[in-house]
Amino acid sequence: MTHAPTADVAITGLGLVTPAGIGVEANWDRIRAATPCAAPDPALKGMPADFSCRVPDFDPDELLGGFAGWQLDRFVQLAVLAAREAVADAGWDPRDWDAPRVGVVLGNSLGGAETFEEQHRALRDDGPGLVSPLAVPKYLPNMVSGQVAIDCGARGVNLVVAAACASGAMAVGTARDLLRSGRCDIVLAGAGEAALTPTVVAGLHKMGALSKRCDTPETASRPFDAGRDGFVAAEGAGVLVLERAEDAGDRARALVRGYGATCDAHHATAPDPEGAGIERALREALADADVEPSAVGHVNAHGTATPMNDVVEARMLRRVLGDGAAVTSTKGVTGHTLAAAGAIEAAYTALAVQHGEIPPTANLEQQDPEIDLDVVHGRARTGPIDVAVSTSMGFGGHNAALVLTRA
């Protein structure tokens, strides 16, 4: 059975497992308070960047049960827990849904980096006989969607989006399109990433992407600040349950009205210096939503706190939206969760729209004079938000923009 295409897709459930906490309530409280999560990381001791943003108090045996603690890599564990919360938040019991009509579209970029490093050490130190038979299924990036589907019995379309730091946003947009096409009735969309390993962090440091504030890690993630010097590596997962608006009824938290995706085709790691690609993605999303730029009241920006990204994105937002949108970057709290960022930030944007509250940008002490935007800082700003935007940019030149509106 298929359904005719429909424009309106609702977010009916949210699940968040991030450095800001486990669960939507814990996340929203910390994001609104703008309390940074960065702290020294024992797993990175001796590294040039020895701090990160990790999910606190995450015990997979206690939180997931069964064999998840040793059968699943951490990036999948985080996503499974977020998916369970999202499904419950949407009011669904998987025993009651039409499983072949339930899809899963999740993003990931680095796969089971922790598993890969552990198994490489086993091979190097003890030989091939000590490599785990689970090495490959734990490492594979597609397991983030495959294992979520196994956990909740979703037998519809199952995809992984690998678009670096734009993965999560593209997963939400792809899921929205599946619902509009009639291919699915429910889609779990989002992303999971857990790659806080010495090799990954060393690579990011050598690129010059990471903050060097080892003495004061809590102040290191400084989006839009004049003193920013790079992002703080983080882990996390965010899952949204999407349904057609006519099926969602009063369960809708917000609507996903527009989606745009482009590629810079410019450089492997640096954004187009003019921001042309992310500008096209945002304009596509606004046109898709049939929304004028002047109607946008809030932007959850990519805002990584790297010197180049923040200026490029800020100039683009000013060109497209003018000075009417209140901008924030929640990475000041969470750090940069890489592939999961776009999904987590889409969830934060939905909460801002639902509650009429824009969280402040943490660690913003002196706004860069080149950033001519209304950046919310100090305290949350309250008031109705009819239209909001979330933007994402990733290595490889991937860009994505989502337009969310009140339900």
UniProtKB/TrEMBL annotation:
UniProt KW keywords: Acyltransferase, Transferase
PROSITE patterns: KS3_1 (PS00606), KS3_2 (PS52004)
Gene3D superfamilies, per database record: 3.40.47.10
UniProt record similarity statement: Belongs to the thiolase-like superfamily. Beta-ketoacyl-ACP synthases family.
Organism of this sequence: Amycolatopsis australiensis
Example GO molecular function: 3-oxoacyl-[acyl-carrier-protein] synthase activity
A single GO BP: fatty acid elongation
Pfam families referenced in this protein's UniProt entry, alphabetically: ketoacyl-synt, Ketoacyl-synt_C
Protein name, entry field: 3-oxoacyl-[acyl-carrier-protein] synthase II
Ketosynthase family 3 (KS3) domain boundaries: 6-406
